[in-house]
Amino acid sequence: MRKISVRKISVFIIVILSALVAASGQARSIKELAESEYTLKLIYENDFRDVGDIDDWVMEGPGRIYWWENKMTLIPAAQQAIYKKWEKNNRENLNPETEYYPVVEKCLNRVNPSVVDNLKDKEGNFSGGHIVCWNKAFETSNGYCVEYEFKPLSPVGLGIIFFSADGMGGQDVLSGQLKSRYGVFTSYTESDINCYHISYWANNAAVGKRGTCNLRKNSGFYYLADGNDPTAEDLDYSCPTFDFNTYRIRLLKENNRIRFFIDDELVIDYTDNRYNDIPGDGKDTKVDTGKVLGGGRIGIRQMVGLIGQYDNFRVYNLVDTGK
To answer: Fewer beta carbons below 10 Å: N end or C end of the chain?
Structure first.
């Protein structure tokens, strides 16, 4: 059962994360972690043992939150429609304009027609069917650690964690003071929300296996960094059936430094200096990506093809002891 705790545990960050980096030989990261000592304040814990434990989460977009197998399970309303279309297309990428979004729109017109008009991008094109699920029980401080277990139950889709999310004027993203959101991506990346996000399990039915986890900064959708996505390595589209693994996701934000782990692998280690090099833009000058973001809300995004399960969710604020 979920519980909020105010207990503080004095511990080196190495104690929390050394098991992650040891197996992958990240010796430099171990040294860096050992150099800083924090007090960890547990602000949120949820193992989803009871059906009421999903009540801490609120959905945006056409989908549902279920309590299934003692886990929080997120299912977009058009998930089966896009999955069946992908299978019928011999597991080849679907054209976004003529196959992918038309299938989603047709499905939602049938099952939830009242929401369809809200699922368009800034140019008026249908781009919906995706979902975002925010936790309403807490907001983080400037430095924090998030960890949870993620299990995909479908071979297509994409997962994202939004973090340090707040309004451009400092508003709580759940305050009702910002523009309405229905899961359309640009509402989170090019509107009135500031946040970081990292994508993983990037197997969109319109793109295929990407192979990288990407770190971006919003508003502005600035591409900051990427790293190898170990989840993609486990997925073989040539197999007649799929076996899905459970992955331990860990995110560590220390002021302007962001580290992202999947199981034992350090995937991303990036320091946001506001004026940042943008990978692949072909420019020598640094880009002003806006202020370094502090604390805020945590959210989970799924593209329409993904069924995702989440368990053992924990969040700690980092308190600098000054040592």
So the answer is: C
> Contact, 235 vs 155, CB < 8 A?
yes
Q: From first to last of its 323 residues, what are the pLDDT tens digits of the chain?
A: 544 444 443 333 333 444 434 434 343 333 344 335 678 899 999 999 999 999 999 999 999 999 999 999 999 999 999 999 999 999 999 999 999 999 999 999 999 999 999 999 888 899 999 999 999 999 999 999 999 999 999 999 999 999 999 999 999 999 999 999 999 999 999 999 999 999 999 999 999 999 999 999 999 999 999 999 999 888 888 888 899 999 999 999 999 999 999 998 999 999 999 999 998 776 778 999 999 999 999 999 999 999 999 999 999 999 876 65
Residue 145 and residue 138 in contact, taking contact as beta carbons nearer than 8 Å: no
Report the CATH fold assignment for 8-320: Jelly Rolls (2.60.120)
* E-assigned strand segments in the chain: 8-12, 37-46, 57-60, 63-68, 71-76, 131-135, 144-152, 157-167, 193-204, 208-209, 212-218, 222-228, 247-254, 257-262, 265-271, 275-276, 287-288, 297-302, 308-320
The CA R_g of the chain, rounded to the nearest whole Å, is 19
The phi, psi pair for 242, rounded to 5°, reads -120, 135
Which amino acid type is present at position 137?
A
Prediction pTM value? 0.88
